[in-house]
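User: Hey, quick favor. My workstation is busy. Could you predict this chain's structure for me?
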Amino acid sequence: MGALFAVAPLSGASAATFAFTNGDILLGVHAYGGDGATQNVFFNLGSTTNFRDGITTGTLGNIGGTLDTVFGEGWYGRSNVLFGVFGNLNSQPNAGIGSRAAVNGDPSRTTYFSVPVPTPGDGNSLTINSSDGIGAAGTTFSGVENMVIGLTANPDGSATVTQATQPVQFSNSWSAYNGEGNAPFTTWPIGSVNARFGTGEPVRHADIHRITTTNTGASDLGFAVTPLTSHYINTISISPEGTISVIPEPSTGLLGLFAATLLAFRRNRA
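Assistant: No problem, here it is.
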């Protein structure tokens, strides 16, 4: 019995699994060359609908230590190191055979993605030619989603995949679907999604956009949603120290301030 106790693993010694749920929004960091070119770093930014509704704001975490380890301490100054954001609940059509109903105000195929910008809110709206084009990107991205679920979490909450030791997983990595000069996730416009570091900016920004394929069942955020054309939600930023933050879209912040003011007024009258 003593030998059995000697080899039994301690329950607290097991490594944590990277937390990710389909419908979350994923941050991916990769390199086109140099240190880290055969590795990716991932961070779960949380629910896509929390981004849409202005619930997710402020500092989400710091992955500077992991970025230093994977890409070298000078990663922020490297133009061949990039980050991007993508989120898609499912790739099925919203009508007809195999269709899926809207979930929490997001019709099937609704996609969230990043647009590189120097200043928050500067990103232009993008248009995808067809619902099937959006669905194709969602199908491609599902390979990444399924892959990251099996990764081990780093102490800072990120996860790393390495081609040399995880070749099967790396075949569904961020790098696999975001090659230099290629369309991100097979159908997204070239130049979208991935923002380069090494621009000299004190903080690197990327706007988060949302695109739907239909208005049926869609949360309109207080304005008309045009199917197949993206609209600005908020901005993700990464500092030279690796701090990840979300900057709210201005009208969302004003609505939040109005709600807080109204609540305080009602309490004062009670």
